[in-house]
Amino acid sequence: MISKWTIVLSCTLVVFCESAYVETLQKCAIDDPACLKGLIQNVLSDIGKGGIEEYGLAPVDPLEIKDLKVSILELMTINIVEGEVRGIKDCVIDNIVSDAKERRFVIEVTCDLNIKVKVKLGELSPYVQNEFGSKSVEGGGNAKIKLDKLHVKLEYFYDIIKKEDGETYIKCKSEKTVFEYQIGEAKVVVDKLLFGDEDFTEQVNGYFEKNWNFAIKTFGKSVFDLALDILNNIIHTFFDKTPTKYFITNELSIS
What we know:
By secondary structure, this protein is an alpha+beta fold. It has helices spanning 4-20, 33-49, 126-132, 201-210, 212-241, and strands at residues 63-72, 76-86, 92-99, 104-124, 139-162, 168-172, 178-195, 198-199. It has one domain (21-246): Super Roll (Bactericidal permeability-increasing protein, domain 1), CATH 3.15.10. Strands 1, 2, 3, 4, 5, 6, 7 and 8 form an eight-stranded antiparallel sheet that branches.
């Protein structure tokens, strides 16, 4: 039979574990962008390195990629079978705008990312099928994408709510989230890309070297969309699970 002291100890440990991370958070005034910048930088670094177990957030560096489909000019589909993105934990928060009156956050971040993917040739358009003389052509290979100075700007709007626990929380309005990005420099290198029995590695690398912007728009968008979903999940989960008293010094009025 389990003693009452075992139950008490177990409950105490659960409460401790749930509160362990929030107790380490830096506290900021809602209108102090310099302080908020440091807070968000630390949270991003923590999640990148080891995740936050009590929030159900796994480490995101490296970020695993699986089963993504990329359409190239409606000529063919390239399937990203698997891959990874490294460098997220080292992203730098450049700027924070906090407008408490408008209930608005703007986060600007710069990252240097290294992406490695394994790709496989998917569906072919009738034109490409005719060029190859077959409706079914096997192909695939590996690709490396290096993004330097990827600058991302995210704009969030939010409400202040009170939950059943009596605590106040920030609730992001996901439908109003706005983002934009710019790439300082990029390099795409394909390793052994085969279409059927032919090796197109040299031709594709030569093309991508001259037209890296096309390569990033082609392969990068799918990766960016995935990374944005991950980042949004991190931001929303943090706010959803963390009462404002643990990281905001102000008394916030309910929306």
